[in-house]
User: Fold these one by one.
Assistant:
Number 1:
Amino acid sequence: MKHLLLLLFLIFQTCLLSQNKQKDDSYIIFSRVYEEPDDGPCNLFIHDETSGFGISSKKIKCTASLIDDFKKLKEKSFKWKKVGDYCKKRCIGCLRIENQLILKSNTYLDTIYFNLDEYQKLIIDYNGDSFLDNNNEIYKTLSKNNEIKAFFDAPIKQYYDDIYSEDRTLLLDSIEVEKFKINDSIVFARNVNQLDSIIKFNSLTYIQTEDRFNNKFSFEKKPEAFNYYNNSYNNYYFNEKGIIEIIEIKMIEDEYERYSNRGYIEILGLKIDDNHSKIKKLFPNSSKYIDYSRLFFKNYKDQYVVEVKFLNNNGFVNYYYKDGFLNEIKIQFYYD
């Protein structure tokens, strides 16, 4: 009996100690600028009007000891040599801040701004003052966590230029616009009535826009249509001549609103909820950098995009993926 009581007491103490031991919930949100506006504030991270503009972010779990190392690094930096480059509040044309670290460990929360390249090794404080890192201590601290180091070492500006810039090296797949069909019917250049006979709109409205030039008013009346198609809801936008211009196909997010045992509308062999491995087979050129897009170039919806062009400058199809699955499709038509 005495041994049993002792055993129960030891178990109780063990449980009590495990409960009292604080869980390490430390993490870092690492953000990097990969595209800069021609004009704008030097700190893109803190301005709502530029929020998310050309910024790639990643949340990375880490140890409390690493957070402490960054805390000590920031405190130490104030003793480094202050240099002339700075980023003051709302300063246009000043030194652009390239990187942000948000540090969180239990109740501790702080932010570090820094630039680190072949030209600059700086920590920038909240007031915009810059301090020179002569001993490469920023990079040494970053390198203590492999995931943080890999995110920093990735040449995301080069990836962005290769994929999205006007001089991009990515060669997009191109197809004839007539290959895009719904219910086996060509969609390109269809008017409202023709498309309604193919798709059966749930609703059709006319949006009137007003333009003023030299005190003269002009009005445009453009049709907009909507329908459900299997498990997606779809918007159709027409130009002022009533010809189809844009189609948006989106997944119905609420699973209770989805139809049971039914598929999705298929666009050039791809449909909502397809794994992104499928587009790699169908359009290998356009999807060459899809893994980089997933890692670095998500939009505000947490989506990354693959573009396929129509030949003869007739438009394009954008496939938007989320967590590896096709989440949204946008078709844009161009007419001479």
Number 2:
Amino acid sequence: MRREPPDKGGRGTSRRKIWIIRFSDGTIGSCYGARSGAAEIAELRKEDYGGSYTMEGEI
């Protein structure tokens, strides 16, 4: 079984993934990293793309 190294974010339990961000205006983006980092990026961009978003885990 292959073991993934822990995320460098400090917690050690969060794995890096590809997160799909779907904004309310239909724009779709992606972010590689921990969920918290992807959420920060989505929060910064949400006003540019319709005001809200949803996130999905890795594909």
Number 3:
Amino acid sequence: MNEIDFFLELLDDEKEIDYILEVFDETVPGHSKKSSSTMERKKQYIKLVFQGRTVRMKRKRKKGHPFYTYINKYKLISKTDDMKVEDFFIQLQQLEDTAANYRFAQALLNFPNETREKMPLMIENFKNGKDPFALGDIFETEEEWKNHFRRTKRFLGEKMTEAFLGDIKKYFSEDILNKVKELEKITADFKVWEINQKINELGENYPALAIIYSFIETHPDEDQDILHALTLECAIKLMKELSSICKNETVEDQEFKEQIQKLKDEIEGKDKKIVTINNRLRDIRKLQQQEAKEQERLQKKELDLLRQLKEKERKLDATSLSFQLKIKDINATHIKEYDQLKNEVNVLHNQINDLQKYLQDKSTPKFAVVYTCSTHIIEMMYPEVLVTHVSQWETFKHKISSVKQLYIQRNGMSTPQFFKIKEEAKKFGIKDEAFQADSVKGVIDWIGYYKIQGRVKN
């Protein structure tokens, strides 16, 4: 069992398993959602990811081993620079409540060769239900424990000030960090007995925390007890400042909650408007269904008239043939019948032409609309009108050759794009007109207005 196999054996947190797949942008084959696959199946697939054997990993071909790329994302366990491997493994053993896979990763990152040597015993412990890091390193005397404590704790001895300052600095605000940098040249010439005096003199422009911190950094050779005391004073001042910030944030949190409630109220109002729009859409769909039924009835009527026309034409042809054969013998009655049939045919032709023109007018859009709002509700409300979002213009422009008028929503459209659409519409012989609308409702109202305007003109 290698380090990847053992790491995955120790890994039992499904959230971290899903996070690993997310880091490498991978999905278990055959499972579109992470939750639809078992933990064991996911871990088997993660093994292929760590080995760089999936299709996606082969395509990426990134530098570095995927497994070590991932475990390097872990926050490192605190340790001294000169910590020995034995002390480090004892420290990992004492962290038995911390996830075993995390501790194993820390061991690989800090002491890779020694960790691989200890792996057989760690694997045996795991198989026997023990903590993998229970490697038998125990203290037989109090002195051994004290020596281990001194070697592994950062806040002891001469390095205490340096370690403590490094941790404190992580919590400094950007403003404090800038002040500390400004003070480097100023505090370098301070004497230790002048600190309080300098704090009073510089207090108007520099906080005491920054002055003391800068003094410690610029006087590493000062008496260690004094530096320790000043370091603790820095920590106390930092805690006071953070406490003040927390109180201010509590007030800001209350204001934020009030803003959230205001937004919730606004959303509730929007929801009511959405219900109103949905009701209107339902009514529009009913009208569209009625129009569809009416169009179907007219189409049936057209077919019936065509059938009647064919029948009349057949009779006319028969009568015409008979008239030609018996032209000399035909009487006034036959002539009258012929003229009557001819008139009926002409009437039917006119009716069919009128009906076809009506159906064509009903089905052919009179105008087209280009809008900029992010929605598809407009196409649903006016399926009989050629409408499109500005992002689809290149495809849409080939569909509007039959219209005579193009309306363009000016809001949200760049000037170059607006004039480009006008120019291309002109090439098709289509007139254009711009309109202003700052919402979906505004666009819908304008289309309704143009439809009514078109009916009045017709």
Number 4:
Amino acid sequence: MIRIVRTSTYDALHTDRAAHDRTRLDLDRARSDLTAHRAHAGEARRLTEEAAQQLVRQATAERDEARAERDALRAELDAARAQVLLDAEDRVALRMLLRSVRKQAAPPERVYALFHHGALRSLHRSAEAAERAAEAEGAPRGAWTEVPPGASCPPACEVVWRVQPLAVQDLPAG
């Protein structure tokens, strides 16, 4: 069957066909642009994830470095505290030594005379030192007694070993 088509209709069909072709070209361009944008978005996402991972690695490294520095500073602080304690102990020991030296350097206020059967054997800075000297010469250990203040002492010849305190006086310069 043959159909008679008018020229205006035919021209309209050609115009529609051209519009259709342009629309198809625009659609193909839009599809290729969409594909390119998707590829670009995928690349951008990948780069963003890599950058985020890099930032996480960098932050982790900085955190680990800060922790190591903190631990080193704590160790240094502990060492400094220990040194301060040692310094304080050293000062205490030095004060004790200084007191001891001052006591030894100062002239004694009293000396302790060690007598054996009334005869002077030696002089000592302390009663304990005199007792040790007597024990070294044969006196019995622990047999020492004290005479109460104000009581009279037995005669020196009746006592085998005696420690007697004697006051030391400064001699006048002469």
